[in-house]
Amino acid sequence: MGKKLTYGMVGGSKGSQIGIVHRKAINLHSKAELVSGTFSRNFKNTLATGRELKIDEKRLYKNYEEMAEEESKRADTIDFVSIVTPNSSHFETAKKFLESRINVMCEKPLTITLKEAEELKEIARKNHLLFAVAYSYTGYSMLRYAREIVRRGEIGHVRFVNSRYISEWMAKVPFEGKNSRHEWRSDPKFSGISNCVADIGVHIQNVVSFVTGLKIKSLCARMDKFVEPDKLDDNASILINFDNGAKGIYWSSQISIGHENSLDFGIYGTKGSIEWSQEKANYLKVSKIDHPFVTLSRGSKEVDDFIKEEYVTPGGHQEGYVEAFARVYDKFINAIIKKKKGEILEQKDLDFPTIDDGIDGMRFIEKCVESSNKGSTWIKY
Ligand SMILES: NC(=O)c1ccc[n+]([C@@H]2O[C@H](COP(=O)([O-])OP(=O)(O)OC[C@H]3O[C@@H](n4cnc5c(N)ncnc54)[C@H](O)[C@@H]3O)[C@@H](O)[C@H]2O)c1
Predict the structure, then answer these.
(1) Would you say residue 2 has pLDDT above 70?
(2) Is 269 in the pocket of ligand 1 (CB under 6 A)?
(3) Is 363 close to ligand 1, i.e. is its CB under 6 Å away?
(4) Please, are residues 236 and 165 in contact by the beta-carbon 8 Å criterion?
(5) How does pLDDT run across 99-127, given as a tens digit for each residue?
């Protein structure tokens, strides 16, 4: 395959949540190596993380500006950067790397405003750069198989979608001990105009859009704030009208005691339905009208070979979060490799969450907030 690609990371210092998942996911396919970073706003922390990761100290930087500028001057500049910082810094960081002609993988929510997200798309387009957004759940095999079932029309015309992403981690009156992740998420300065919808509601919106291909036509949201002194929503109920006439209900919550990361959906069509749950990600319930329902596993003969060909973990063993994340990265990295070879990228090469998905997410957040602020009225999308 030739030499590995190289990448840098912004955020993801020791003790942070998602940076290490990105690094493990990239390592799984061994096509890219971490060679530079600014892992924290605190340089001592960046140095400590960088040393642990065996990165050459010359490529550990005080901030993202210095990193983008210095990396872009090098003959062996990084092939892409992974941005895994809190929401409010995504825009300025991604912009700087795009302007330095470096491909970007950025965490969700893509930015703080829709306008910023659209601006990033324009800069990426002008500079002919690839831009992925870390909608990690789209990497799960059975979710990809669910998309195939809907595409083939096996459940007929979609009538209704019921999806939730509920968790309990912000249910306690906060800051029992220091939890910076809780702190920044409930602070508009770092999180933006929403906490819960921006943090996990966007995953619902993205996963449903990925599996069904449906577009939202209008929505009606009620965003709640149960826990004081949080400044932003920690629970939301959202009604959806889709462009094909289908309806939906989304529920995102961080106060649902008894749930850790319950991202689930049911998609109900005229001929059948599919149901999937992130915590039981290796299975998909498929029901066809007048037939007994079946629960398919990843190893089932019904699952298409083109999906099985991408397995890292064989059927019958558990595929998890890191493998799903790795599939998203692998597709992004394969596209960079192809582009580096000077080959033309086709639509099938872009089967990872792109900047358009990031923009959709920002539109979703803004429309939910607008609806909720107007007394939960229906808002055109
Ligand atoms: N895709 C997913 O499934 C998923 C899961 C969790 C979090 N996220 C997203 O990932 C991002 C980070 O979330 P987290 O839970 O890992 O947060 P965290 O608080 O655990 O970690 C944030 C990291 O960013 C560093 N940092 C902050 N500002 C920085 C800056 N200006 N320059 C360099 N480093 C900086 C911090 O030192 C820390 O290492 C958020 O946007 C969140 O929405 C996505």
Answers:
(1) no
(2) no
(3) no
(4) no
(5) 999 999 999 999 999 999 999 999 999 99
